[in-house]
Design goal:
The protein folds into two domains: about 80 residues, Hypothetical Protein Ta0175, Chain: A, domain 2, CATH 3.90.1070; about 90 residues, no CATH class. It is built from five helices and nine strands. Helix 3 packs across helix 5. By secondary structure, the chain is α+β, with helices and mostly antiparallel strands.
């Protein structure tokens, strides 16, 4: 069953369309956050069953959206948060997000570490570090890894799979990736 949208809600906002699909399957929702602009985080105000959630997920997929149930809980209110976004899956969304944000980085040889290449975003942020010595790419935790953990509750395996695919397709580096939590001084400052 398609959802019915009020006349005043025809504003070409795709996430608004997704919200009405969700309401038609799961009941009223409360928007929690929209960051970035092509994601909507919400909490359910009613308690639908698994069958309702699966039907909603299928309907959203037919319309070009995905529904992610990362299990994010607001520990103060004990509310479960869901995310809806544009695309067929969370992994597809993440690859597109990486391409939108970081596909035009400049590769710069490191001044401090031999056999190391830094990939810079807007000539000010070091996002990737390619260490030719151990043939690994280190991913800036704050710029990429934390986003995937926070919004999608992806585990290390899934994030590595996404970043390795993206780095291979975008920068032609077929090497394993790893997060680079505290940088250990290796992500040198841009000059």
């Amino acid at each position: 069953m398609k959802y019915i949208k009020l006349f005043e809600n025809f504003n070409n906002d795709l996430l608004e369309d997704a919200k009405w699909i969700i309401i038609s399957h799961l009941g009223e929702v409360k928007e929690v956050e929209i960051i970035p602009k092509d994601l909507l985080m919400f909490e359910l105000l009613e308690e639908p069953g698994d069958e309702q959630i699966n039907k909603c997920r299928e309907h959203l997929k037919e319309e070009g959206f995905f529904l992610s149930d990362p299990g994010l809980i607001d520990f103060y209110d004990h509310e479960k948060h869901f995310i809806v976004g544009i695309g067929n899956s969370v992994k597809e969304y993440c690859i597109n997000w990486l391409n939108d944000k970081f596909s035009n980085m400049e590769a710069v040889p490191s001044k401090s570490f031999p056999n190391t290449v830094l990939y810079r975003h807007d000539l000010k942020d070091n996002v990737l570090l390619y260490d030719k010595t151990n043939n690994k790419v280190y991913v800036n935790y704050q710029k990429i890894w934390a986003f995937f953990e926070h919004y999608f509750d992806l585990d290390e395996y899934d994030i590595k799979e996404i970043t390795e695919k993206w780095i291979s397709e975008t920068y032609n580096l077929n090497v394993p990736t790893t997060r680079f939590g505290n940088y250990y001084g290796r992500f040198e400052k841009c000059e």
